[in-house]
Design brief:
Elements lengths: L4 E7 L2 H8 L5 H15 L3 E8 L10 H11 L5 E3 L11 H13 L3 E3 L4 E2 L4 H34 L12 E5 L6 E5 L1 H16 L4 H11 L11 H8 L7 E4 L5 E5 L2 E5 L7 E4 L8 H12 L19 E3 L6 E4 L9 E4 L9 E2 H17 L5 H41 L5 H38 L6 H7 L3 H11 E7 L15 E6 L2
Parallel strand pairs: 1-2, 1-3, 3-4, 12-16
Antiparallel strand pairs: 4-5, 6-7, 8-11, 9-10, 13-14, 14-15, 16-17
Helix pairs in contact: 3-4, 4-5, 6-11, 11-12
Bound molecules: zinc ion.
């Protein structure tokens, strides 16, 4: 290398990245051109260009900066060209000290289009330090302004993320800055299906995952659905037309001298009405959140269910499940009590609570007019996926049939031997049979789901059915299909013989 060699260091700032979003050209290429021209004008020989592709705040996050500093410390370069001093260090005091020392002790110059900093010149050194100090304050202001800008965009209902949630694509707004979301028809179908499987079919998360993977529908990047990807969809308010702010706020922690950024879920996130169209009905969404909140204890299969309310009834005071306590010895009726020994919620006789629940549900369902539209909305998604599958299969079937015709032609024209024809046609006929079987399967499923639709009004008679059921387990299954949960609260003991033993409060969360 010649005696005097220089290097170029390129790095995007956060503002550059924002500017690129609004149509500004690629930053690094533009800066490289500026600095190459500068080098040419001043006759500086460039030995290396360090291109930082990630936009990290700290030196630890910037691989190229680490290499540059090492080379600077080894006195490889006479000087380093940057578009502005701040590109070298920004935001962090200890990082700035590191940069300052490396350049100072190796006598490496910093060259920007407006000024050359020579660390051997005392005045420049001060200037350099001052420049970096300024940039730190400036950085904080800019960062605050940037965050504020995003928050305002969210309040206006715009989408400020980079990656649109599953079910949507990101679209540029026509009459203002920023972005919103447009429904992606195919993905939205899957979103609806996830809500339907979880809520209406009352599946567990894991069972929803299994069914999705069996159906052959795929998430965007991963090969298969997982519990966490399904949970994310079920809890994302974007689907009811909302935009959220700070759902996962960055948190910085120092660990082993490094800054670690985590994005934990933030329960205090802000939520605004979005400009985009909802995929999921509000009511469905609320019910799903209600179901997600409870951690229903599972009924063990080898245990005989003796309490028809098990897994359904919870303590209003502490949230723990209410438990059945048998009084077999004294031939007294069973008692329903909070399973938390420290809780002071007052217990009741189980049969009294059960009767009240049934009474309440009876009234509820008799007066209930089912919101068909809400159900139809979800049914529709399921059928749409099936219909898409059917169309796909029909296309494949057509293709196989035309292949079959083709080989008949080949046989007629003596291009295929008889043996060739037989083995080819066997294969194709096999394919056709398989496709036809799958088509039949899908068609029956569609028919079945059409039938389910007609069953709904029968709900009115369900309470009569309940009374006819003989064991607690059957009753429990039926109740679970009707309600998410019931909360129980009793404030005062009924000590006197004249006091009302039904003086407790029940909050029932029906599924429909
Ligand atoms: Zn309790």
């Amino acid at each position: 290398m010649p005696n005097e060699t220089y290097a170029i260091y390129l790095r995007k700032s956060r503002e550059d990245i924002e500017a690129e979003k609004y149509g500004e050209g690629e930053t690094l290429a533009r800066h490289e051109k500026i600095l190459s021209t500068l080098a040419q004008k001043r006759n500086l020989a460039i030995g290396k260009i360090y291109r930082e592709v990630v936009s990290g705040e700290t030196i630890n996050e910037r691989k190229e900066m680490q290499k540059l500093l090492q080379d600077v410390e080894n006195e490889t370069w006479t000087g380093v060209l940057v578009v502005e001093v701040e590109r070298l260090a920004r935001g962090d005091t200890s990082d700035q000290g590191k940069v300052l020392k490396a350049f100072k002790y190796s006598h490496t110059k910093i060259i920007t289009p407006v000024k050359t900093y020579d660390p051997d010149n005392e005045f420049d050194e001060e200037y350099f330090e001052f420049g970096l100090f300024m940039s730190r304050r400036e950085y904080k202001t800019i960062n605050r302004r940037l965050q504020r800008g995003r928050e305002i965009s969210v309040q206006e209902g715009k989408f400020v993320g980079n990656i649109p949630p599953f079910g949507y694509t990101r679209i540029k707004l026509k009459n203002s800055k920023g972005y919103s979301l447009a429904i992606d028809r195919n993905e939205a179908c899957i979103v609806k299906e996830i809500f339907r499987l979880y809520l209406i079919e009352n599946n567990t998360i894991n069972s929803v995952v299994k069914q999705l993977n069996n159906m052959g529908v795929k998430p965007r990047i991963a090969e298969e659905w997982t519990a966490s990807s399904v949970k994310d969809i079920l809890s994302n308010p974007t689907y009811i037309g909302k935009v959220v702010w700070n759902r996962r706020k960055q948190q910085k922690k120092t660990k082993d001298g490094r800054i670690i950024i985590t994005r934990p879920r933030n329960s205090n996130f802000l939520i605004y009405d979005g400009l985009h169209e909802a995929i999921i009905d509000n009511k469905i969404w609320e019910l799903v959140q209600e179901k997600r909140k409870q951690n229903t204890p599972k009924v063990k299969h080898n245990n005989i269910v003796k309490n028809p309310l098990v897994g359904i009834i919870f303590c209003e005071k502490c949230g723990k499940p209410m438990q059945r306590r048998p009084y077999n010895k004294y031939n007294k009726p069973e008692v329903l009590m909070c399973s938390n020994s420290k809780c002071d919620n007052i217990s009741s006789k189980l049969y009294i609570v059960e009767n009240k629940v049934i009474e309440a549900l009876q009234i509820y369902f008799q007066n209930y007019i089912i919101d068909y539209k809400v159900l139809e909305n979800l049914k529709f998604s399921n059928n749409l996926i099936l219909e898409n599958n059917i169309l796909e299969l029909q296309k494949l079937l057509e293709r196989e049939n035309s292949k079959l015709n083709k080989i008949y032609e080949l046989l007629e024209n003596n291009i295929y031997s008889k043996e060739e024809f037989i083995s080819r046609s066997k294969k194709i006929k096999n394919n056709i049979r398989n496709l036809e079987n799958r088509l039949n399967e899908y068609n029956t499923t569609i028919l079945k789901s059409d039938k389910e639709r007609i069953e709904i009004p029968k709900l009115k008679n369900i309470m009569e059915l309940y009374k006819k059921l003989e064991n607690a387990e059957e009753k429990n299954v039926l109740l679970k299909s009707l309600v998410f949960k019931i909360t129980y609260l009793k404030r005062e003991k009924s000590i006197k013989k004249t006091s009302d033993s039904t003086e407790f409060e029940l909050n029932i969360f029906p599924k429909i």
